[in-house]
Amino acid sequence: AAYKVIFSGIQPTGIPHLGNYVGALREWKRLQDRAGPGTKLLFCIVDMHALTSPRPAEELKKGRLEMLASLLAIGIDPKKSTIFFQSSVPAHTELQWILSCTASTGYLSRMTQWKVINHGAADILLYQTTHVPVGDDQRQHVEFTRECATNFNHAYKMRCLIPPNTMSTISRRIMSLTDPLKKMSKSDLSGKTRISIIDTPDQITRKINRVRTDNFPTIQYDPINRPGAANLIRIMAAFDPKGRTVDQLGEEMTGKKYSELKDVVTPLVIDGLAGLSERYEHFISDPEKLLDIARAGGVVARAMADETMRQVRELVGT
Ligand code: ADP
Ligand code: NA
């Protein structure tokens, strides 16, 4: 098909961090900027998934607005992309139920292990998604989704749901600042483990200075034995103006001190995130406008979902 539907989602569980930015959100913006007329982009703030760890309602409401303001600050443009809250499309749960009925038992047991994936498949299939940009850590979600679509199509003998393709984004997993064996995550209780996309230059400098390093006096790119240095080098590569690879930069930094590496990484991150906090403040200061944007996105998403569900219901007889 000449057309493309690109779908991706993010949980409204806090302000995005450096990992979300280089592993996903910055890529969303690039996809948007490169999209031709036959491409539709949908970016879903998955508030229903966030319910898997219950929190006070006010916190989720706040988290959704914070995520929306973050996406806008990064440059996701509601005129070019559909940005919406998952909960504005009730068909997510309907399709999820229907998919669970045609899932194989092996699939079902894996689904209970990872309950979130099960929702993820319906999210993606609901929009006839052809491409899913995902980071390294979420590759298997797309595999599950393909399996869901194939099982359903097989059960009803019709190519109704489209098995989506993984769109490989540059796989850069950024690790926690305090424990380089754990991935940097929004849901980590301590903010010291991550650099937020709206941290000030001072905060960024302090956090990088405090990064836990390895027990070696000098740098070598060795992810297994020196994960602290490897993480800093990955961050450096993510923001390298010359676009050099992790291996090239690792070689270049070999033999240098950790403090020298940090001195190189710090301004790259500050420059890389420049302007984001100002734009974020601009958007978050107008919650009514944010809600309008989300509502408008919801209307578009619902129309696309209805089209898919019309075919699905026809096929299953509901
Ligand atoms: P988090 O784990 O921080 O709560 P999400 O699960 O909402 O983030 O994932 C949002 C997107 O960010 C996904 O595409 C995921 O691949 C990407 N992502 C999350 N953490 C990292 C990380 N530490 N490094 C690179 N990409 C990441
Ligand atoms: Na997560």
Protein architecture, described:
There is one protein chain. This protein is mainly alpha-helical and 318 residues long. The chain folds into 2 domains: 4-172 and 286-316, 3-Layer(aba) Sandwich (Rossmann fold); 200-272, Tyrosyl-Transfer RNA Synthetase. The protein has 13 helices and 5 strands. The chain has helices at residues 18-34, 47-50, 57-74, 91-102, 105-113, 115-125, 139-155, 201-209, 227-239, 246-253, 258-272, 276-284, 287-316, and strands at 4-10, 39-45, 82-85, 131-134, 165-168. The strands form 2 sheets. It has a 3-stranded parallel β-sheet with strand order 1-2-3. Strands 4-5 form a two-stranded parallel sheet. The longest helix has 30 residues, at 287-316. The chain is globular.
Describe the SSE topology.
Elements: E1 4-10, H1 18-34, E2 39-45, H2 47-50, H3 57-74, E3 82-85, H4 91-102, H5 105-113, H6 115-125, E4 131-134, H7 139-155, E5 165-168, H8 201-209, H9 227-239, H10 246-253, H11 258-272, H12 276-284, H13 287-316
Parallel strand pairs: 1-2, 2-3, 4-5
Helix pairs in contact: 3-12, 4-6, 5-6, 6-7, 8-11, 9-10, 9-11
This protein binds adenosine-5'-diphosphate (ADP) and sodium ion.
Protein name: Small ribosomal subunit protein uS10m
Organism: Dichotomopilus funicola
Family: Belongs to the class-I aminoacyl-tRNA synthetase family. Belongs to the universal ribosomal protein uS10 family.
